[in-house]
Task: inverse folding
């Protein structure tokens, strides 16, 4: 009976999502337009705000948590403790950079909370030690979320990607915190670099024509990523010249913190 109720709620949600309109546009229509290149940037920004409103309203009106639906333009990641679900999508602007939208749904003791993450002006590359609130989000597509609990401390590791500009993209490890009311924020100093340095997130910016590995190993509680280097020492600290050197570094979980290790022999990394 419980499964039947859940399936019924999901069907209701999907029907509502497909047919809810702001103006005369459904979510499906909006994504088709965002994917094309015939609209000006300002028009695309208006459309993605409409899409956010449709999704937020839909999630608030249904009692279903983390419903999934088949739309290739929208990503969905669900935490392994089944308490946080993140929906996100992106579209390309005229300068070949990307703009992002994301909705975070959190499960509370009674009901859920739904929050749209807000980019104030334009997407940016977040700094390693800053705390970022939901109303000043940097913009990214998240493809992995993993819950970490140690004693009374609880947070989520996020892996994401951003097409920052025409010449550089970046992937990142970030930390999501959710307060008792279900409000999300980003950044927590749990990434232990060598020495005494501790970061709230790790950003890997690299040449836009390249690809890098950034994966999470659930069984080993380990984050695996390419070691990035410049093409030449003369290009040090210029991200557009950075790419993988085919060695791998990791963060390994120990007592609620993530400890950095370089030049690790990683098997089945991809």
Result:
């Amino acid at each position: 009976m419980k499964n039947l109720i859940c399936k019924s709620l999901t069907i209701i949600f999907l029907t509502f999502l497909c047919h809810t309109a702001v103006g005369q546009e459904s979510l499906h229509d909006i994504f088709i337009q965002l994917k094309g290149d015939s609209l000006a940037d300002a028009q695309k920004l208006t459309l993605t705000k409409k899409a956010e409103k449709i999704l937020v309203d839909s999630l608030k009106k249904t009692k279903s948590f983390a419903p999934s639906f088949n739309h290739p333009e929208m990503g969905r990641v669900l935490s392994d403790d089944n308490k946080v679900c993140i929906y996100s999508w992106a579209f390309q602007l005229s300068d070949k950079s990307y703009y992002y939208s994301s909705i975070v749904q959190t499960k509370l003791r009674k009901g859920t909370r739904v929050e749209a993450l807000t980019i104030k002006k334009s997407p940016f590359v977040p700094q390693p030690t800053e705390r970022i609130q939901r109303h000043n989000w940097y913009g990214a597509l998240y493809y992995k979320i993993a819950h970490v609990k140690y004693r009374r401390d609880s947070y989520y590791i996020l892996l994401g990607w951003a097409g920052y500009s025409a010449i550089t993209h970046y992937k990142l490890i970030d930390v999501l915190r959710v307060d008792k009311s279900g409000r999300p924020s980003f950044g927590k100093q749990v990434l232990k670099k060598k020495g005494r340095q501790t970061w709230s997130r790790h950003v890997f910016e690299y040449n836009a024509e390249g690809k890098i590995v950034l994966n999470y190993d659930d069984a080993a509680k380990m984050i695996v990523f390419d070691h990035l280097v410049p093409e030449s020492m003369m290009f040090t600290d210029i991200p557009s010249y950075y790419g993988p050197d085919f060695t791998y570094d990791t963060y390994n979980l120990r007592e609620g913190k993530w400890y950095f290790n370089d030049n690790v022999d990683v098997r089945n990394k991809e």
